[in-house]
Every structure is written in C-alpha cells, then in structure tokens.
C-alpha cells in the first residue's frame, strides 16, 4: 500500500464528512424554515380568532344591550331604573348559575381523570408543600383540639450520671484485652515480662 492510497483515503473521508455536514445544514435550514412558517400561520390564526371574537362581542352587545335613551320625566326615569335593576339581578343569577355549573363540571372532570389514572394503574402524585410544624402542632392537627397532648421528647430520655460514666471508663481501661496483648507482644513486652518475673 503506497503513500498515494493513504492520501486518497483521507480525501475520500474528508469529502464524505463535508457531504454529511452539508446534509445536516440543509436539514437544519429546512427545520428552521418550517418552524418560521408554522409561527406565521399561528400568528395569522390568532389574529383571525381575535377579530371573530370582537365581532361576536359587538353582535351580542347590540342584541342584548340596546342603546340607552334617557326619558324626560322623573316618573319614566324611575321606571327605567327599576327595569335596569331587574335586568342586573337576572344577569347576576345567570352568572351565579353558570359559575356553579362550571365548578360542578370541573369537579366531575377531576374525579373522572382520577378514576382514569386508577384504572390505568398509575397514581398521580398531588403537589406537596413543605410544612414546618412541631410535634405538638402535628398531634393537635391529627387528634383535634380536644386532646391536649404534649410531646416532650426529652422527658422520656434516661438521665445519665457522670459518676457512672467514670466507673465504666475505668472498667473499659482495665478490661480491654487488646491493650494487654499489644503491650505483651514484641521485644518490649517480653522484656517487661522478664523484668516483672525477676522482681
């Protein structure tokens, strides 16, 4: 295999990698073009929907709110005020009814979605908040305000006297067999044993 074959192979690899880069650039450019076209379509659709809503609003107001003509006499003005108050009450009743229906349907939707998750075997974890609460407050919340429970965690602890700990320390020092073995091992331990045996 000569030098020319190696250079030809490198040129082929280089041209192949540049060809892949061109393909990637073309794909990226096409993706960007499609994205901008979709955004333009969405913007025109939003404008169209806003204009349709405005026309619908104007039609509704023209139908339900005729132009106001103020009467000349006090009696006619009072009658007009009574009619307006009656309309306001009826509109408030309708608004209240629709709000109640909306709340009911939202609750039904939540229940159905929860049932759907249960049927699928998945549990939707509710959003949890971190709550800082003492043990007493937690017990009060669980048991209610009737039960007066004081949870003093230190009350159940065993009290330790300092004398006991000192005695235990002395026992540990004397009874630790590892120390005795370490002291007796090696030349120094044998020397100590020999000196202890002489005296």
Briefly summarize what is shown:
The protein is mainly α. It is built from 6 helices and no strands.
Account of the protein in words:
- There is one protein chain.
- With 199 residues, this protein is mostly helical.
- It is 77% helix and 0% strand.
- The N and C termini lie far apart (92 Å).
- The model has no long low-confidence stretch (mean pLDDT 77).
The helix content, as a percent range, equals over 70%
Give the number of helices: 6
Specify Rg, calculated over alpha carbons: 45 Å
Please identify the oligomeric state: single chain
List low-confidence stretches. none
N- to C-terminal distance: 92 Å
Q: What's the overall geometry? A: elongated
Name some characteristics of this structure.
single chain, 199 residues, mainly alpha, 6 helices, 77% helix
How is the topology of this model organized?
Elements: H1 3-64, H2 74-120, H3 135-143, H4 162-175, H5 177-184, H6 186-198
């Amino acid at each position: 295999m000569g030098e020319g074959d190696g250079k030809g192979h490198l040129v082929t690899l280089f041209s192949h990698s540049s060809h892949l880069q061109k393909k990637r650039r073309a794909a990226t450019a096409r993706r960007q073009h499609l994205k901008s076209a979709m955004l333009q379509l969405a913007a025109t659709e939003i404008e169209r929907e806003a204009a349709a809503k405005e026309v619908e609003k104007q039609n509704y107001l023209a139908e339900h709110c005729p132009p106001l003509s103020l009467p000349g006499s006090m009696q006619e003005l009072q009658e007009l005020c009574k009619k307006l108050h009656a309309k306001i009450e009826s509109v408030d009743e309708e608004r209240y009814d629709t709000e109640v229906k909306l709340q009911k349907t939202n609750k039904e939707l939540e229940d159905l979605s929860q049932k759907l998750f249960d049927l699928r075997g998945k549990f939707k974890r509710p959003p949890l908040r971190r709550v800082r609460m003492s043990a007493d407050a937690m017990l009060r919340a669980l048991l209610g305000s009737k039960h007066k429970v004081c949870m003093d965690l230190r009350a159940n602890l065993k009290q330790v006297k300092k004398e006991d700990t000192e005695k235990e320390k002395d026992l540990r020092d004397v009874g630790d067999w590892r120390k005795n073995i370490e002291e007796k091992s090696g030349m120094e331990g044998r020397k100590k044993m020999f000196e202890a045996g002489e005296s």
